[in-house]
Specification:
This protein is α/β, with parallel strands linked by helices. It folds into two domains: about 5-360, Glycosidases (TIM Barrel, Alpha-Beta Barrel), CATH 3.20.20; about 375-465, Golgi alpha-mannosidase II (Immunoglobulin-like). It has helices at about 1-25, 40, 45-60, 90, 95-100, 115-120, 160-170, 205-225, 240-250, 310-320, 340-355, and strands at about 60-65, 75, 80, 125-135, 175-180, 230, 255-260, 290, 325-330, 375-380, 385-390, 395-400, 400-405, 415, 425-430, 440-445, 445-450, 460-465. Bound molecules: ligand FHN.
Length: about 475
C-alpha cells in the first residue's frame, strides 16, 4: 500500500514535471528576455529549418536508458521496488553509499555498440539518444569531472558512449545524449524530486551545477559532438540565470538540437510529450513523443509488459500522421544486452519500414480532417481532462505528389473519404511490387478507391494516392 501510494506520487510528480516542461515551452508566445540568448532566439526561420532538417525527416529514433540501475534491476534488499527501474534509488530511498556500491557489480561485458546500432538501424530508426547521466548521477562515459562513472568506478573500465558515438556515425545514424541536469541523487546539492533522503545529498544546487553538471556537459559536447542534447525534469532550482550558463555553452554548437526540458524559461527546439500521443500533435512545432516499450525506461527484470508490435507501429504511424517523431525506448540489462522481446519488436517494425518507409520518413501531417478519435465523456487523463480515445481505422501522411493512407483496419472492398481536399490522379498499394493501379473515383471532395479483398500487411497496408500537388 505504502509503495503503491509512493508510485502514484511519483507518477504525479512526473506528470507535473512534464506539464511544467510543456508550459515553459508554450509560455514562449510573447518574447521572453533570456539572460543569454539561445539559438532559437536569434536564428532566422531558414536557419532553423536547415538545423532541424535531418530531425524532421527522421521520424523514428531509439531512446536508450542504460545506467547503474540496471544492476538492481527493480529489486532492493531482495524485494521488488515499484515504479520505473531508473528511479529505484529514489523510490526505494536507497542511501547514497549503498547505491554507489552497485558500481562494483557493473561489468557489462556483453555490450557491443555494433549490435545496438545495427538493431536501431534494422528497426528503421534514424537516431539514438542515450543516457549519459540519469538522475542517479552515474556517468556512463569517461568523465574527468566526476569519478562516479563507468570507467573509474566499475570493473568494466570502458566507455560505451565512445563506442556508440563512433558506431552510430559509421552506420549513418545521428547520435544524441540525454543528461539529467537538475536531478542528481548522489552529488551534494543535486536536486531530487520528492526531496533528499540522505544527508550526503545536501548541498548547494549552484555549486553542484558548477562543479559537476556544467563540466560534464562541456565534456560531452567537446568529446562526443552530440547531434541532440536531451535535458530532463526541470525544476525551479534551474533559474534563468543558471540555465543561461548552460545556454552559453550550447550556443557554441550551432547545429545542436536540444529539447524543451532545460528549465529557466528556455523553450528549446522540441516539444516532448511523454508516454502519450497528443490528439492533434503540435501543429507548426517540432515535437517528439518519448515512450517506453514496456512500463519502465531503465531495465527491470520483472517487467514483461511489452507493447505489441502492432501497437508500436500504430503509434509510429499515428505520430507521423500528426507531423511528430517517435523516440521509442529500450532498457538494456546489466550485461549490456537489449532484452530479446524489445529487439524482436524493433526488428518487426524494421521489416515493415523496409517496405513502407517511404510513407513515414520525410513526410508531413495528414491532409485530411478526420479526427480519428474522440474525448471520453467519462474517463479523465492524468491532468484531469477528458481522455482522448483514438480509433485505429486509418491514418494518413503526405509528401508532394503523394498521400499515404495507412489502412490499420481493412475497410473491405473500397476506401472512402468524404472530405478529401486533394486532387487525386491515381492509386496503388505501396507493398505491391508492381504498383498495380487501383480504380479511383473523385467527385468533389468525395474520394473512393477500390481495394483487393485482403490487406497485404496484417498491421498496416499503405494505400498510395497520387496527387496533383
Ligand atoms: O524521470 C524521468 C524518467 O526517468 C525518464 O528518464 C523520462 C524519459 O522522458 N523522463 C523523466 C520523467 O519525465
Amino acid at each position: 500500500m505504502h509503495m503503491t501510494s509512493r508510485f502514484v506520487r511519483y507518477a504525479v510528480v512526473c506528470s507535473i514535471a512534464a506539464a511544467v516542461a510543456t508550459m515553459q515551452a508554450h509560455a514562449a508566445a510573447p518574447p521572453i528576455h533570456h539572460p543569454v540568448a539561445a539559438i532559437q532566439d536569434t536564428e532566422t526561420t531558414a536557419q532553423r529549418d536547415a538545423r532541424m532538417a535531418w530531425w524532421r525527416d527522421a521520424r523514428f529514433g531509439m531512446f536508450i536508458h542504460w545506467g547503474l540501475y540496471a544492476v538492481p534491476a527493480g529489486f532492493w534488499q531482495g524485494k521488488p521496488v515499484h515504479g520505473i527501474g531508473e528511479w529505484i534509488m529514489n523510490t526505494g530511498k536507497i542511501p547514497v553509499a549503498d547505491y554507489k556500491k552497485f558500481s562494483a557489480q557493473f561489468d557489462p561485458t556483453q555490450f557491443d555498440a555494433h549490435t545496438w546500432v545495427s538493431l536501431a538501424k534494422a528497426a528503421g530508426m534514424k537516431y539514438i539518444v542515450i543516457t549519459a547521466k540519469h538522475h542517479d548521477g552515474f556517468a556512463m562515459y569517461a568523465s574527468k569531472a566526476d569519478a562516479f562513472n563507468i570507467v573509474d568506478a566499475t570493473p568494466f573500465k570502458h566507455d560505451p558512449l565512445r563506442d556508440l558515438a563512433d558506431e552510430a556515425r559509421r552506420q549513418g545514424l545521428k547520435f544524441g545524449l540525454y543528461y539529467s541536469q537538475v536531478q542528481d541523487w548522489t552529488a551534494p546539492g543535486g536536486a531530487a524530486i520528492g526531496g533528499h533522503w540522505d544527508k550526503a545529498q545536501d548541498g548547494d544546487f549552484a555549486q553542484y551545477l558548477h562543479t559537476k553538471a556544467i563540466p560534464q556537459l562541456k565534456e560531452l559536447l567537446a568529446n562526443y559532438h552530440p547531434d541532440v542534447l536531451w535535458f530532463d525534469t526541470p525544476t525551479d532550482a534551474m533559474t534563468p540565470q543558471l540555465a543561461s550558463e548552460i545556454v552559453a555553452l550550447l550556443d557554441r554548437y550551432p547545429q545542436l538540437i536540444w529539447n524543451n526540458r532545460l528549465g529557466g524559461g528556455y523553450q528549446g527546439d522540441t516539444q516532448t510529450p511523454e508516454q502519450y500521443i497528443p490528439p492533434q500533435g503540435f501543429p507548426g512545432e517540432d515535437w517528439e513523443v518519448c515512450m517506453t516499450i514496456n512500463d519502465t525506461w531503465g531495465y527491470k527484470s520483472n517487467d514483461a509488459h511489452f507493447k505489441s508490435t502492432k501497437m508500436l507501429l500504430q503509434n509510429l504511424v499515428d505520430i507521423a500522421s500528426k507531423g511528430g517523431n517517435y523516440l521509442l525506448n529500450v532498457g538494456p540489462d546489466a550485461r549490456g544486452v537489449i532484452p530479446a522481446p524489445e529487439a524482436e519488436r524493433l526488428q518487426a517494425i524494421g521489416h515493415w519500414l523496409d517496405v513502407n518507409g517511404e510513407s513515414i520518413y520525410d513526410t508531413s501531417a495528414t491532409p485530411f480532417a478526420d479526427a480519428h478519435g474522440s474525448y471520453s465523456p467519462t474517463e479523465k487523463d492524468e491532468n484531469g481532462k477528458p481522455r482522448w480515445i483514438p480509433t485505429w481505422n486509418w491514418r494518413a501522411t503526405r509528401r508532394p505528389g503523394k498521400v499515404y493512407v495507412h489502412l490499420l483496419e481493412w475497410p473491405g472492398a473500397s476506401f472512402h473519404v468524404a472530405d478529401a481536399d486533394i486532387h487525386a490522379t491515381g492509386a496503388y498499394l505501396l507493398a505491391d511490387p508492381h504498383h498495380t493501379p487501383l480504380k479511383l473515383t473523385q467527385d468533389g471532395k468525395q474520394l473512393n478507391v477500390q481495394l483487393p479483398a485482403k490487406p497485404l500487411d496484417s498491421i498496416d497496408t499503405v494505400l498510395v494516392i497520387q496527387t496533383k500537388s
